């Protein structure tokens, strides 16, 4: 998997102070997407074990308390990303007690593969659905268009 950007301190992509990983690769290529530079699977940098370790360390850093991890892109549920994302979310759940995981995907909950569902089973919040430019609404919280649905799987 490649990633486009990693922000160890982020207050935009989810509630509270978070760590945010923008993965590379998106097959949806939504018109009006604000992150088109992440569409290519080859864009960005290789996601390494060292970066995975850094994310875990940043989430557990007590100097700036983090509420959780946000995964966006690109698309974390792109078939080429699922294995690495699954490994990361498993580590977060086991090594970062009390941290939540938010994930944004153009795939919908109803149409996920078995492997994508394994990832979703470990996240607390899924924002699903492609960005639809005609349904864009800047007043929406945590999503860009009104067709996108926020699924809260745990009480956070």
Automatic annotation (TrEMBL):
Pfam families: Fer4_12
Swiss-Prot/TrEMBL cofactor(s): [4Fe-4S] cluster
Keyword terms: 4Fe-4S, Iron, Iron-sulfur, Metal-binding, Oxidoreductase, S-adenosyl-L-methionine
Class of the enzyme per the UniProt entry, highest EC level: oxidoreductase
Top-rank lineage group of the source organism: Bacteria
Annotated SUPFAM superfamilies: Radical SAM enzymes
Gene Ontology MF terms in the entry: 4 iron, 4 sulfur cluster binding; [formate-C-acetyltransferase]-activating enzyme activity; metal ion binding; ribonucleoside-diphosphate reductase activity, thioredoxin disulfide as acceptor
E.C. code: 1.97.1.-
Reactions the enzyme catalyzes: glycyl-[protein] + reduced [flavodoxin] + S-adenosyl-L-methionine = glycin-2-yl radical-[protein] + semiquinone [flavodoxin] + 5'-deoxyadenosine + L-methionine + H(+)
Cell wall biogenesis/degradation among keywords: no
Function: Activation of anaerobic ribonucleoside-triphosphate reductase under anaerobic conditions by generation of an organic free radical, using S-adenosylmethionine and reduced flavodoxin as cosubstrates to produce 5'-deoxy-adenosine.
NCBIfam families: NrdG, PRK11121.1
UniProt record similarity statement: Belongs to the organic radical-activating enzymes family.
Name the record gives this protein: Anaerobic ribonucleoside-triphosphate reductase-activating protein
Species of provenance: Vibrio qingdaonensis
Gene encoding the protein: nrdG
